Amino acid sequence: MRKLIATASLLAIASATNAAAPPQLTAAQHEATHAMFEHIVDIPTVIGRHRVPEEAQYVADQFKAAGFPEADIHVVAYHTGSATTGDDDTAAVIVRWRAAGTPKAKPILLMGHMDVVEAKAEDWSATDPFKMVEKDGYYYGRGTIDMKDGIVAITQAMINLKQSGFKPKRDIVVLFTGDEETNGIGAKNGATQWLDLLGHPEFGLNADGGGGSVNTDGSPAGFTMQTAEKTFAGYTLTVRNRGGHSSKPRKDNAIYSLAHALDKIEAYRFTPMMNETTRAYFDGRQKLEKNPLGDAMRRWLTNPNDGEAADFIEASESEVGLTRTRCVPTRLFAGHADNALPQLATAMINCRIFPGVDPNAVKAELERIVADPTVVVTRNDDYVASLASPLRPDVTAAYTRAVQALHPGQPVFPEMSTGASDARPFRVAGIPVYGTNGGWTVTPIDNRAHGKDERLPVKSLYDNVVHWEMMLRDLAGK
Amino acid sequence: MKRVLALVLATALSSAASAAVDPRTVPTKLDPAWQAKTRAVFKQAIEIPSVHHRGQTQRVAELLASQFRAAGIPDADIHFMPYEGLPGDKTTALIVRWRSAHPTKKPMLILGHMDVVEAKREDWKFDPFVFREQDGYFYGRGTSDMKNGDVATTMAAVKLMSEGFKPDRDIIFFYSGDEETNGQGATLGSTKWRNLTDAEFGLNADGGCVSYDRNFRPLGCGISMAEKTFQTYFFTTHNPGGHSSRPRPDNAIYDLADALEKLRTYRFQPMQNDVSRAYFEERSRQEGNSQLGQQIRAWLANPNDGAAADAIEANPLEVGLTRTRCVATMLSGGHADNALPQSATATVNCRIFPGVQPVAVQAELQKLVGPNVEVKADPNYVGQPTPASPLRPDVLKAVTSAIQKFHGPDMHVFPMMSTGASDGSFFRAQGIPVYDIDGSWGISPDDERAHGLDERTPVRSMYDDVLYWEMIYKSLAG
Q1: Which residues, in sequence order, are bridge partners of residue B377?
Q2: How far, in Å, CA of B148 to CA of B138, rounded?
Q3: Do residues A32 and A447 lie in contact, with contact meaning Cβ atoms separated by under 8 Å?
Q4: CA distance B324 to chain A (A)
Q5: A252 touches chain B (CB under 8 A)
Q6: Under 8 Å between Cβ of A208 and A434
């Protein structure tokens, strides 16, 4: 699940940088990147469509063709499923690029996911979400920003490095999972039973996090490095009723009770919260904002109990989800026939919980908000609270150098992601994870992950390959 | 679809003084030889499982046709009309014309249906398709809905033919084969087959008009002569959607919930017609000085007294009888648990007051929910408004005289508006007034088992219904 960049209106800041000029892709590398991207965007790796194994095999084949030893390339089939998502046979790709000689340190884990969120052709404006189209300087298609661009960037970067004769001084291990958007079984396995295959990495770099944006006027809006993420948790509201014949409506109706509960959730705001990452983020942001939004950030940083200031920040399109837990309904189901009163009505509530808060406490809070004993609140998963990763100077420096070489003038911030990703089980297992993708979009018009007409600026795809090459040279080449 | 009498718990009735006799214990006046004939045909009819898609309706048609043929109706006047009900359901209608040698009036149409609702052996105490007589009842699927009416209307005619009765108008029998599912037979019968069915008016044997309460007090005979129009609408909201970690201020599910909240509290304009006025006059008499009785009298005295109409509508006995009603019956929305919904749809089922156009209701709903909610009529079933059939003195007199002969002067006959829809609606829509007048009866609510478990009809009700229809034929065609 890709982080959506939260920085919509940063002013351009001059950033003194001594970064070396970034490497250039050869025409052949450019062409290979395009071909790989088009191939995998066209595979509808949605849960239930059974297509992730095909994509996994394709990605593994790219590594094989580039000369990585077959013994270190694994397509690991596994099962994913839950009551709300349905089931699928999916797969992960694990590639281990071993250090030349004795490794200088424990491996670096490179992370991504190959699955995508459902997309319906009838909901999209013009293009088929599973037929990549290049138009007006963009690649359109499901997964173009979440996150098949990251899969391609890591894969092509490793191929380019291999071709250039680069010899890593520590192992670089790739883990691409096949169910991040649904059940996260791949990441859970990665952080437990596959740890030996992964060589017990020291830390992870996740392409499903980080990245940058530019404003519609072309000015830089900042790059972020993800160090924390909210906890993803799903809940179901269920209302049951005796039902009956629709020609004789009853006073009580499962659908109306559910609608009323949803109205209450719409009006509710959770208590504002701040942690180290978000404090650093808002401190950086407020320096650039001279407007009322900046004033609100300054007030809130000075007084974390200034709820009004936090509410003002949360209401800004660029800061949604960064000041507190948020919950929103995402799906509805009710009734069994158009001429019968509903016996059952349910809504899925998707919550993004502030790090450290127990999802069970949020369940209790939802019950208080709804305040209707006929509306039953249940959890859809057993996720535990996510944790933040401590800032590492080497990762921060490598990320900043790559960003500033490719995008002079772009500031870099730490960031708490409002989305959840495969990073969670690794962080819980004591392996810090940093979202360090190098892709970028135009904000806010390209914020379309999970939505309709998802798209990626064409240039971003090739920048991202170079970005990962630079990061890996920096972190595994010294 | 059997009309369910709403008068389940009518309070003190006028004739409480007279000692109530169990109507089931009163001997039938049907001649024992005709009892035996009726029972034999009824048994055969019940044991044919004429459920949709089982291909058995033709056998019921042949059974009824053989009775007419044996009584002297020429084959030229017996028409088997094969057609498709639900997709893939091969069924049949039966049309029989009993000609008058010297007709003095336009024909009279007798309506019934030969199909029954599904019944499962494991749900019932006995096999639903094995005819059974026990404790004064005939048991089996279709004993009350409505093979009893098929048999009564047929046997009454056959009996009169054998006695040499000469009708002074043609009597046309129309038995459809998919009333419980698609109503295609009635649609064809009222249009394409009109040359065979055209008549001055129709008498529908679908559902007895008479009932008693558990203390054997007469609850009256309600003649359905108007019915509300069935129309389903879809409310749909659209939104660009996006990632659920960043809720937008606008949300398709919230927009739909707001619309449903408006629908929940909305009340259409109260309306009366001749039929509903006559019904409420009878109800007012039954209710006496109860609160409901006073409310009904207030509304009858002043049809603009909306408060009185609202109070009546709110009574569980009278739901749907004072106006158009619409109710939400199904919901669907969203496409993934972790994505903001791009659309959400509610199915809204309306029962429209006779004479009101579905497009007018659509416009009213659209005005109610505002321009951000799309309101569309279900394209698969476009409701045809049916005019209330005029109160025909000849029909009312014939029914009253016959009903009171069997049940005494305290069994009042009054008009009703049905909130459901039956075959009659298709003929009303095409200009043939229809009156639901079957003379079968039961104890309310114990014998109201149409569509349900252990369906049954009192033995006497079956036999007396033959005599009842004999009186109706003599009275209206003699």
Answers
A1: B233
A2: 10
A3: no
A4: 10
A5: no
A6: no
Q: What is the DSSP letter of B270?
A: P
Q: Which helix (H) or strand (E) holds B377?
A: strand B374-377
Q: Are A28 and A412 in contact (CB under 8 A)?
A: no
Structure tokens that stand for B327 in this block: 């109710």
Contact at 8 Å (CB) between A38 and A132? yes
Q: For A467, what's the count of Cα atoms within 13 Å in the CB-facing half-sphere?
A: 29
CB distance A128 to A31 below 8 Å: no
Cross-chain Cβ contact A266/B260 below 8 Å: no
- C-alpha to C-alpha distances, A394 to A200, A463, B249, B339, nearest whole angstrom: 19, 21, 39, 35
Residues (pLDDT < 70) of chain B are 1-19
Do A335 and B264 count as a contact with CB atoms less than 8 A apart?
no
CA separation, residue B104 to residues B155, B168, B375, B478 (Å) = 24, 6, 50, 10
**Cis peptide, bond prior to residue B445, ω within 30 of zero:** yes
**A chain contacts of residue B246, beta-carbon cutoff 8 Å:** 4, 320-321, 418, 447
Instruction: Tell if the CB–CB gap between B230 and A1 is shorter than 8 Å.
Output: no
Handedness of CA B23, B29, B31, B34 (dihedral sign): negative
Size (chain A), residues: 478
Interface test with B, best of A331, A351, A443 (most B CBs within 10 A): A331
Rounded distance between C-alpha atoms, residue B44 and residue B47, angstroms:
5
A357 three-state secondary structure = coil
Token pair in block for residue B17: 């003084």
pLDDT, one tens digit per residue, over A142-191 is 999 999 999 999 999 999 999 999 999 999 999 999 999 999 999 999 99
Whether B277 contacts B255, CB under 8 Å:
no
Partner residue facing A449 (CB), from B243, B257, B347: B243
Cβ-based neighbours of B158, under 8 Å, separated by 6 or more: B67, B68, B70, B71
**Nearest one of A409, A395, A468, A405 to A18, comparing CA atoms:** A405
Q: Which residue has the higher pLDDT, B25 or A222?
A: B25
Locate A193 and state its tokens.
Answer: 């039973």
Please report where in the chains the tokens 């992960």 appear, as a residue: A92
Q: Which residues pair with A74 in a beta bridge?
A: A94
Which chain B residue has its CA at the smallest distance from A236's CA? B337
Tokens 């983020």 appear where?
A: A281
Tell me the C-alpha distance between B146 and B439, whole Å: 12
Q: Answer yes or no: is the ipTM higher than 0.85.
A: no
Give the separation between CA B108 and CA B96, rounded to whole angstroms: 12
**pLDDT tens digits for A435-477?**
999 999 998 899 888 889 999 999 999 999 999 999 999 999 9
3-state secondary structure B256-280: HHHHHHHHHHCCCCCCCCHHHHHHH
Question: Chain B residue with minimal CA distance to A180?
Answer: B338
User: Cβ of A345 and B314 within 8 Å?
Assistant: no
Question: Nearest 5°: phi and psi at A335?
Answer: 80, 170
Taking the C-alpha atoms of residue B370 and residue B373, their distance in angstroms, rounded to an integer, is 6
Residue with the two structure tokens 């806010």: A444
Please choose, from the candidates A435, A443, A434, A438, the residue with its C-alpha nearest in 3D space to the C-alpha of residue A462.
Answer: A438
Find the length of chain B. Answer: 478
SS3 A419: coil
Distance CA B360, CA B367 (A): 11
What are the percentages of helix, strand and coil residues in chain A, rounded to 5? 35, 25, 40
Per-residue pLDDT tens digits for A378-418: 999 888 888 778 888 999 999 999 999 999 989 888 888 88
Query: How do residues A10-35 score in pLDDT, each as one tens digit?
Result: 222 234 344 567 889 999 999 999 99
Please compute, for residue B286, the number of CA atoms within 13 A of its CA located in the half-sphere on the CB side: 24
A337 at the B interface (CB within 8 A)?
A: yes
Contact B340 A452 (CB under 8 A): no
pLDDT of residue A19: 53
CA separation for the pair A211, A193 (Å, rounded):
30
